[in-house]
Design a protein that fits this description.
Elements (H helix, E strand, L loop, with lengths): L9 H10 L45 E6 L9 H8 L2 H4 L2 E6 L7 H6 L5 E4 L1 H9 L4 E8 L4 E6 L7 H4 L4 E3 L5 H10 L5 E3 L6 H5 L3 E6 L3 H7 L4 E5 L9 E7 H6 L1 H20 L2 H10 L5 H15 L2 H6 L6 H13 L9 H4 L4
Parallel strand pairs: 1-2, 1-3, 6-7, 6-8
Antiparallel strand pairs: 3-10, 4-10, 5-8, 5-9
């Protein structure tokens, strides 16, 4: 399994937002994997060829529109629907030829989208609100996760019934500056637990029965189980902090100039995620070639673990990727309450493309 130190490097990306001009050229993709997980070098062999797992560019010989999608991490199941949309031909049916760019820790996806280096990107809802507060020209279009996979992992042997119990004793590895961590600290306090920096991985967790840590339920718990440990996980969403995760964003200018292209992209993405949830085999095979640090068994386990977080009663009624004004407003109020935003943003302006 890949290193989990990036789950999730919000502060690094937030620092990048603060340090760099919004319209600056895109940063190096040197942290990304090869293949279609990164921007191909013009001189690299095969750089101009079709990416792995791609479908024909467009039906009927029509000239496909080339667009770029920037991920905020390497190819993994949380992005499976995007690869499925390409491999299944969903993008091609919408006359789109999509290049998927892999990301890395601190990847400045919001800046790349706002500056026009890419047409679409993947971000978190809290990052979208923070970026827009700084004037970033971005709009949310679709969310992969209805329920945030962010969680706290402890040992089942401790008998904890929830996060409140975890915070009563022992050691907790967490990035305290992250919004969800600030939310938990304000709700419960960290005075009874020893807080240490989160350094990624599960080695210390496996070795120490009194050790708990932040996690994505699609990653670290799977790794811990495979090492013979007994992880019990509790979603932060169940505590009342549930931002949309893996949100597709575009720049507002593109929406205004070519709304049909944006709608076509979203339609294809929705079809791709339907295909991936029904059968992740093909897309997993494509991603496995791009991300060799994750084995086939982990791809399967992660894809299965994330299903109930992506497809809910609401998505079955309204469609995959649906987002509501109420959820965005709640998150914005929480970020203001935590001091992350100075004031409530105009939510209706944010949701113009939905």
């Amino acid at each position: 399994m890949h290193s989990t130190a990036r789950r999730r490097p919000f502060l690094q990306r937030l620092a990048a937002l603060a340090a760099l001009p919004l319209l600056a050229p895109a940063c190096s993709r040197s942290q990304a994997p090869g293949g279609d997980g990164s921007s191909p070098s013009p001189s690299a062999p095969g750089a101009q060829g079709a990416p792995p797992g791609s479908a024909p560019a467009a039906p009927g010989g029509a000239q496909a529109v080339k667009v770029k999608l920037a991920l905020n991490w390497v190819p993994e199941p949380e992005f499976g629907g995007f690869y499925a949309a390409r491999a299944s031909g969903a993008f091609a049916k919408e006359n789109l030829e999509v290049e998927i760019l892999g990301g890395g820790a601190g990847a400045p996806v919001v800046q790349m989208v706002a500056g026009g280096q890419v047409d679409f990107g993947i971000s978190g809802a809290d990052e979208v609100l923070t970026a827009r507060a700084r004037g970033a020209d971005v709009l949310p279009l679709f969310t992969v996760f209805q329920t945030s996979p962010q969680a706290i992992m402890t040992h089942a042997s401790r008998g904890a019934k929830g996060i409140a119990d975890i915070l009563k004793s022992g050691t907790l590895a967490i990035e305290p500056g992250l919004p969800y961590a600030a939310y938990l600290k304000k709700k419960y306090g960290f005075d009874k637990v020893k807080v240490v920096p989160y350094d990624g991985g599960v080695a210390r967790f496996v070795a120490d029965k009194d050790f708990s840590q932040q996690c994505f339920i699609t990653a670290e718990p799977i790794a811990a189980k495979r090492k013979g440990s007994d992880p019990a996980t509790f979603l932060v969403a169940d505590e009342g902090f549930n931002p949309y995760v893996a949100v597709v964003i575009t720049r507002a200018a593109l929406w205004k100039e070519n709304p049909e292209r944006v709608r076509a992209f979203v339609r294809a993405v929705r079809q791709g995620w339907r295909a991936y949830l029904d059968d992740p085999t093909q897309a997993n095979a494509v991603m496995a070639k791009l991300n060799t640090s994750m084995d086939a068994e982990t791809f399967i386990a992660a894809a299965e673990a994330q299903k109930p977080l992506i497809e809910t009663a609401e998505t079955k009624e309204k469609g995959l990727g649906v987002m509501t004004r109420a959820r965005w407003e709640t998150l914005a109020k929480q970020l203001v309450d935590l001091g992350i935003l100075e004031k409530m943003p105009p939510i209706d302006d944010l949701l113009v493309a939905l």
